[in-house]
Amino acid sequence: MGTFSSLQTKQRRPSKDITGWYYQYQRDKIEDELEMTMVCHRPEGLEQLEAQTNFTKRELQVLYRGFKNECPSGVVNEETFKQIYSQFFPHGDASMYAHYLFNAFDTTQTGSVKFEDFVTALSILLRGTVHEKLRWTFNLYDINKDGYINKEEMIDIVKAIYDMMGKYTYPVLKDDTPRQHVDVFFQKMDKNKDGVVTLDEFLESCQEDDNIMRSLQLFENVM
Question: Mind listing the pLDDT tens digit for each residue in 68-85?
């Protein structure tokens, strides 16, 4: 009897351990699901985004699937954005330009970009009017978001573009090339010579430059 009682006791203990482990597992699973619920972001209705952008509902569905594949949580932070963007420029350093681009996408300055932010910007860049594209570009160059572009901001963006292109810039650029190019452009844009470029000055100068206008038209029929 003593041996049987001892065996029964030994049999009960694992049962309690397994039950306790199972309940702990269920609690952890529920907590993980709650955490994912808080982290994951679901976008606005596609009908609303269709009304706010120049994409069809079908195009938005395709874009959302691609966005979710890269960003399962429904939002993308700057580090992930840099990793994704750098894949398109393997021969250069795209990190700084991706940083500036991310800040332009992150219109609320929260440190993360939702699908709505992404698709709204993409709609402007691919299918927006000339004014919409130029306004968005102005915001990209206005790094400190004070409503003006100063020469150092323009140099930072242009240098980031050259770094991103890497060895594919031809002819090979010297270190002072970005500054030289900016000196020429900035002098044209800063019409009242006060050291900063306003949105109106930017819009006027860009629309007077055929090269800039042609570069904007390249995106119109991409999708």
Answer: 998 998 899 999 999 999
